[in-house]
Design brief:
Elements (H helix, E strand, L loop, with lengths): L1 H10 L6 H15 L6 H31 L7 H26 L8 H30 L2 H4 L4 H10 L1
Helix pairs in contact: 1-4, 2-3, 3-4, 3-5, 4-5
Length: about 160
């Protein structure tokens, strides 16, 4: 989790700048289609890919924190507290990430990116809570109700009695 947070912050430097990621993408597309002019498409795709990467980084960060702290399914009151802590930590890393970008000549901070980062973390927490609620319900269903016998088996059991 700490390693991932460090990687997120490292990507906030000029290493993760748009010209760098765009040039990688452009090189790949030009290798695939040497005769095409896809400049506008590449630029638009690069922007979209970078926004998805923002959300994905923080989605993964939230999952790693949750996994590092909580393992067992029953949803508890402390899980809501943990979710709040994860969101607070994600907000801190997102703010640091945007702050680091002010120090890079090829990057710039963006409030929109901060909210995209937080959306990734919120989505991860929401999916975790949905999964845990589903797990809790499955654990509470008695085995006889979860896997009812077929009518033929019921007849055999009745006839044997």
């Amino acid at each position: 989790m700490i390693l991932w947070a460090g990687l997120v912050l490292y990507a906030s430097t000029s290493v993760g700048s748009s010209p760098r990621t765009g040039s990688l993408l452009e090189t790949f597309v030009r290798w695939l289609f040497p005769d095409g002019d896809f400049t506008q498409i590449i630029r638009g795709f690069n922007i979209a890919m970078r926004k998805v990467a923002h959300a994905l980084q923080f989605f993964i960060l939230a999952l790693l924190i949750w996994r590092g702290v909580r393992v067992k399914p029953p949803l508890q009151r402390s899980d809501r507290f943990l979710a709040g802590g994860i969101l607070a930590f994600s907000a801190l890393i997102a703010a640091l990430s945007e702050g680091i970008q002010t120090l890079s000549p090829t990057r710039g901070p963006s409030v929109m990116d901060f909210f995209i980062d937080m959306a990734g973390a919120i989505l991860a927490i929401a999916l975790i809570f949905l999964w845990k609620r589903r797990s809790d319900r499955c654990d509470q269903v008695p085995l006889s109700e979860a896997n009812p016998a077929s009518p033929a088996e019921d007849e055999k059991n009745t006839a044997a009695s």
